[in-house]
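Notes from the pairing session

We agreed to fold both candidates in a single pass and log them together. This is the raw record for the first candidate, unedited. Please don't reformat it; downstream parsing expects exactly this layout.

Candidate A
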Amino acid sequence: MEKRLLLFLLLSFVILQLTMTYTGKKYGTGRQEQATTEQARTGADQRSTTATQTLAPAESRPAGLSAAQASPESYPIGPTVPVRTRVYDILFSTNGGVPVRWDIIDPRFVTHAVDAATSGTAREHLIDPQLAEHPELPRPFQTVLQELNARYYNEFNQMVFTHEQLDRAGPIHRFTSPPNAAGLQMVKTWTFQQDSFQARLTIELINQGQSNINFGGGERGLGVMIGPGLGGVSNVRNEPVSTYASVDAVLNASGGFLYEHIGKLGSGGGNTTRGQTITLERTRGLGEVLWGGIESKYFLAALMPDKTNPITGAEALLDNRVLGTLTDSEKLVGDFPMIELYGSPFKLQAGQSVQFGYSLFVGPKQRQLLEAAGHDLSRAMFHYSSGLIRALCNLLMTILYWLHCVLGIWGAAII
């Protein structure tokens, strides 16, 4: 009898924890500080990010204007390339070689029949479908690259890349830009697996010009952005998709785990609101960055750098223009965060090339999938709980998954 009572109490506790997890909003490190530090953030968005870059050299801009104010950017979709595996249905834009749609179609993880009537396949959107309707907003997996003491190379997020499919079974897709005015060319190679939520992104920079180029504006090398947001939280018609509520930027490093929800737009002009927890200054002191990304309740989009090109800094951001485009609710603007992950400054000599490699996980936050992907991705599970509570929850979830495998029914496993 005592054993039954103990088991009942333990299972009741984990059910309570899971109920709190999947029905309430999460409040992570730095959220309580935001109300008192809002004024400190006012002028922070003068720095150009992916959301505020310009093609014009910095010295040609009028004094006192941010890059976005001096030259508003646009990210047209242009010709598209469909990529489909047994778990994904993705649509790439040849403008920048970035995804404009990323849907999960694996029936094991599709909880809502999104667009099933029109597409014939039930799916979960991991990129808000409305994003493609607003060319003024940045796209997921765009790059941030600034020449030292000079301009941003934002044209690589706008120009049309040529496309070739290297392997149909994988599949593997390569997008190649034309050389820009400086003679720099960018090649993006996306590698997928048919039955996996893991993928690879390789970015190669080729200097076909006559001069050496130093990259490292603000001590930042090549940056890759994830976001805005993860999934569809709501649209301008106020139709909420509550399963995606509380979307956060997350970063896992050897020196600690950070997550942030920027719940309020900044003021003072410019397009970008910077976070207060995941910042370049703070992340530089965290040691080796294992991965960074965007999470919702059930899904995670994470980027893991190769050892040869470690992430040395990260920054959580919010594009102020999501209000009135992706949502018309001030309460929901924080559910469209971005995170920019930067490497170290580097020099690219004329006639030389450099390659940056990243592993990706874009899929459900299921512990078995996260552990199989490695890179300590399972740290995303219950990360907002204390160490003891998190360990207990993970233990009980392991027991529940095992019972489910044996019994085949979740209700029986819980009982």
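Candidate B (folded immediately after A)
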Amino acid sequence: MACRLRVDVRQAQRDAGLVGGVEGRLPGGAAPSYDVRSEAPREAETFGTMRSRLETTGLLDIADKLDAGIRLDLDDGTRLFACPDLLAVGWLANREREKRHAGQTFFNHNIRIEATNVCVASCLFCSFARLQPGDDGAYTLSLEEVWDKLRARQHQSITEVHVVNGLHPDLPFDYYLELLRGLKRIRPDVHLKCFTAVEIAFFADLYGRTDEQVLTELMAAGLDSLPGGGAEVFAERVRSKLCHDKCGTERYLDIHRTTHRLGMRSNVTMLYGHIETAEERVDHMLRARALQDETGGFQAFIPLAFHPDNNQMRKLPAPTAADTLRVHAVARLMLDNVPHIKAFWVATGVETAQTALWFGVDDLDGTVQEEQIYHMAGARTPAALTTDDISRLIRVAGREPVERDTLYNVVSMSA
């Protein structure tokens, strides 16, 4: 049944003009230029069909704005979420994706480490955190245990270590500094993408430093970039209900602003599929876009699917595959200045992540290898994928695998 579903999705994409296949690509493998006004004989029928379809669904003016290089606004974004024709939204997003990256899809060889799940924050959606060190399921790794996770993979060509933790009230700041130093001693060339803006704010408050002082000290110890976690939804209505006792929106954005000013890159996320509205989703994207206009430091936007198992929001349903595809597609259309839209396959599911490669997504994150936050919330995805696994998933979805490092330098092009 699953295989049949994937075939049907691909056929639907072809019917909608989303997928060109071999016959839809130019000599040399380049993607055709998707302009709804094109009269190129080979593409005229497809574009004519899509132009009529966009007009019927009320999206033709949005396509015209995209063609003219005019930015989409809040009203455009909410209309994209409301449009019943998901494939038309996907077609527009795929067109923007291919303008930037043609068929290339990026991934990296990374490992994820979550050193502690002890956390003073009481986010309703979180299945990972434990409020006290002695609570059932609480853990804190020793520094040697953290370092052993990298030592055990010395034979792997890992380019990134991604560290994210709970907000532990009792660990000294030196724990985090020495964590970074130790990882760099083991692999001096590895990129350390560690600690969300929420963690940076917590460190500053707990240890009596400014956010900038925390970042500067961490950089001196080996920090190379910041992940995007902790953004959740920027709207105050949502944050006040779901995560009232951790770093707020303005501080989150300001920490990323400071991060970029200090010369580091970062990502930005959005937790979707719970109590947020379409308008709040678009507002979130627009706030990220505004900071990107200012600093240019965001590399990727990463929608993160809400998972309801084992947390205080378990009565809510998880987002559907259709909603996941739409969120990624709208993100590509709204965030014209963010280079990459990433589908975190651990959260979306592998099959949906593959399909999202035709809905604006150009990055599948990486090998991950160890991940607990989503799996403790009920994720049924694998704990890890190999680089060969990811390359195959990309290739059979009709895209071109490109292994990258954290800063999107090409490591290898898969044949």
